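Residues pack. Consider this:
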Amino acid sequence: FRFTTFERIEQTPLLVIKKNGTREEFSREKLLRGLIRSCEKRPIALEQLETVVNEVEAEIRALGENEVSSIVIGEYVMDKLAKIDDVAYIRFASVYRQFSDRKTFLDELKNMEKKKAEQAAAEASDIQPSDAPPHEAAPGKEDNEQ
């Protein structure tokens, strides 16, 4: 057997304010379990999910508060999952947002598609004219002849 230890700076406890108003200590393991469930049978490595947990924890600690709403955590997670896998995102959102009917589910799908279209448009508009390939006319033809 080989034993390893990982040392981490002990940080002040971070409390999560749940939707019902109760408070519990932030649990990396609980967050990871939820992500694993959302990503079941999806081509997502465990290391990616651990990275999501690390990033989410870093972002909520950067807020500088001792307490954070579960809603804030959920939004951070959904933002990360949307960039990794659409199916995992919808699975997580359906539990997190407590989809109660087909309409809510479809609304979330439409919202996701709208965000992706906006992101694609924003990325396309970031291309500067100098980044675009130069227009080459066929030899011996003018630009207006096609």
Summary: The longest strand covers residues 15-17. The CA atoms of residues 41 and 130 lie 43 Å apart.
